[in-house]
Amino acid sequence: MLTPLVYWAQRHEEVYLRVELTDAQNIDIRVHEKVLQFRAQGYGAKGHHEYHFSLELLLPVKPEVRFRSTQRQVNITVQKEQRGWWDRLCVQERKPVFLTPDFDRWLDESDAEQEIKEKEEKKKRMRASRHKNEGFITQKTVFLFVYNLLQFVGFSWIFVNMSVRLIRFGEDSLYDTFHTTSDVMFFCQILASVEVLNAAFGIVRTSVVPTLIQVVGRNFILFIIFGSLEEMHSKPVVFFVFYLWSAIEVVRYPFYMMNCVDAEWRILTWLRYTVWIPLYPLGVLAEAVAVIQSIPIFDETKLFSIPLPKAVGTSVSFSYLLHLYLVLMFLGLFFNFRHLYKQRKKHFSKKRKEN
Questions:
Q1: Strands (E), 121-248
Q2: Which principal EC class is assigned to this enzyme (predicted)?
């Protein structure tokens, strides 16, 4: 039977073994009383064979053995039965020829004690830091919870109001959406500017750019396209834009509220990371239709157009900027969609690993 090269080191509570065996398979490690037995197949000093060794340890250890196999070696961790420092690894004073100290992990007893002290001091500093920031964390949590609650109530009111009116009045409800819900939508979208500040100052862990694109894009549609043109108030496209926006938010904000209190509702989590996939592109498409419908109105009213001297020309029409905005809108759609999809993939991948 062939024996692999084994490196060893210790701490006061554990023994570490590193077995030099490449692509190890069929690993079998057992501890009986003070004897540790190892058997596995892999590439060692003699090529690909089955390798085996047995060590009678100096003192008893716990039967549970932790090991991790990498491409180049097998790392084994054994818990000592009693905390203490061993003079050697094996009972016999003459160590086996295949066993050698692991100088990458080797510490003297005094160094190991110092390592323990440093870990304890680090834990104390972390506990002190958490205690120091506890008030801030609580204030931040309350702030985020109240903010998300306000947004949830606002967008829920819009969504329910529009749904009830659609059921009650049918197609006629499409033409007065702005007059019945715009005040609440103005409030919610102005308040949404806080999300950019939250991301910028690190209050929430999210990228600033995607948040800025969404908030600025929506406010441009709401205040410039709808708010400044009275002719747009009665157009059905307002209904579709508002309805798609609120449909996304009545799922997103309660999800954030649950996160504030470290709670999770699986259905809500799934909706949060799934419902935006069809709704977000549809919302951008509705916004694009609104911009296209507003271009002839801006050309006719000359609103926001820049007058020029007669020698140069009449004016620079605001519609030129709207054509550029349409291009930027779809570029933003691509950028944000990719960002949100990565978030979704990362979240569900993390959940699978936890389960």
A1: none
A2: lyase
Catalytic residues: 280, 287
Instruction: Return the number of other C-beta atoms located less than 10 Å from residue 218's C-beta.
Output: 18
Asked: is 4-104 a CATH 3.30.360.10 domain? The reply is no
Distances (CA, A) of 139 to 136, 192, 229, 263: 5, 19, 41, 18
Q: What whole-number distance in Å separates Cα of residue 127 and Cα of residue 133?
A: 10
> Tokens 């799922």 — which residue?
251
Between the alpha carbon of residue 248 and those of residues 8, 51, 241, 346, the distances in Å are 57, 59, 11, 20
The predicted-structure confidence for 219-278, as pLDDT tens digits, reads as follows: 999 999 999 999 999 999 999 999 999 999 999 999 999 998 888 888 999 999 999 899
Q: What is the pLDDT of residues 327-342, one digit of tens each?
A: 999 898 888 888 888 8
Q: Where are the domains of the chain?
A: 4-104, 136-339
Structure tokens at 283: 């919302």
| Bridge partners (DSSP) listed for residue 16 | 9, 77
DSSP classification of residue 78:
E
Q: How confident is the model at residue 119, as a pLDDT?
A: 80
% pLDDT > 70, the chain: 93
Structure tokens at 98: 């295949």
Reported in sequence order, the residue ranges of the chain that DSSP labels E, i.e. its strands, are: 5-10, 14-20, 22-32, 35-44, 47-56, 61-69, 74-80, 99-101, 306-307, 315-316
Q: Which residues fall within 8 angstroms of residue 224, CB to CB, at 6 or more apart?
A: 304
- What is the band of 203 on the pLDDT scale with cuts at 50, 70, 90? confident
Q: Is 111 helix (H, G, I), strand (E, B) or coil?
A: helix
pLDDT at 310: 63
Structure tokens at 340: 């949100």
